[in-house]
Amino acid sequence: MIERIKYKNRLTDLFRKVKFENKCQIAVITGAEKIGKTQLLKSTFPTFNQGVFETTFFKDDPSKLAPIVQFLRQFIQKEGKEWLSLNPASKFLAGILPELGEFHNQSDSQSQVLAVSEAIKYYSSKFSLVWIIDNGQWMDKETANFLSQLIRGIEGCPVFIILSSLKIELLDLPINQLLTDLHYHPNYLEMEILPFNSAEIIQLGKEGFSFSISENLSENLLNFTGGNPFFLNEIYKNFPVDQYQFSNFNIEELVEDGSLKIPKNIIQTIGISLNKEKPESANLIKIAALFGFQFEMELLESVYEDYSSIDNLLKFNWIILLEQNEDWATFQNKLIFYAIKQTISWSEKKWMAEKIASFLDRKNNDNHAELSGDFWNIAGNKENARKAYILASSHHCKLKNYKAAVTCGQSALSLWPLNLETKLKAEVLINLAECA
Fold first, then answer.
1. Residues 6 or more apart from 189 whose CB is under 8 A from it?
2. 168 pLDDT band (50/70/90 cuts)?
3. Are 344 and 352 in contact (CB under 8 A)?
């Protein structure tokens, strides 16, 4: 992957201030999932460097102070337990690290903050310390309060604390409470990692894969992937992009008709991310994908009474409300939409299609009849599908949309039981004859 030079240079400049000016620096890096935050930090601060500590939060982790615990364990691994026996404040760490039973002492959080700050001061007196805290979006309140107090206690130390997180605007999240405190720090910086633009997509194709990509093709890829570096790399690896250089290439059409397959790594990555969500949220996003790229929010509201699952999808940008009509929503980009559709299992597709068809029927709108028939058909309910197609055929005929009327009528007849010859079937045939 091409380096994000401007971001890397900014981090390097801040690290120089840590190293040569003995100033504590705080950087918060935000961006979409798989945008390259972790890759940027790994390439800028390799973990084999003696002064680098790499920690992370985990979603739904019941333990508290996870990055603090990870930092201390790495510190002890680097320094050995000798420091613990020499530093009086270390006795307060037992409340954070259970394995330090011999140093057990009942202590409050302030004493624990003091003990961790002493470890940081000691280590940063020997090496310029870089502490990476990844996945800040999963931060708990206890850790947010701990870090806020800790940072105030090490302002005069050569320490570079880098917090990376998905970009989330909700103010009630612990990470945003911490960021509010950090805004008052004299050496605080926020940096958002943006998606690749058209020029960077061309550069990636040329430098990474020896492709000569035209501006038209790069715009096509930008619209399909949202400029996500991970998605682009996988597409370049798996799609014969160079073959479409001088044709009317439309990646969405090729995926839609089956000419091109979404790379397995992308589908697996999306699937893993979905599995980390609450089952209700994962089901909702799949139902939305089964319906289409854009969908009514009312559809999602009709599935579960608890709207927190919908809030979760909006919070982490699985779906985005349309600016012109917030009753409707869409996906970040077409690639995520198609990838999610391919994670839907056979059995899931059945019951999810039934949910969609029932929702459309409740709207009691003839304009939805054909779509309702399609989803009843997917759900395996031929009777309801047949009824919907009959209604749709009649509706199209009234609108003088004869081609659609014939198509729906034929769909209804194809689902007719062989042993069920009724007056209604004769009416459908007559209607077809009139519309043909």
1. 10, 14, 25, 26, 27, 28
2. confident
3. yes
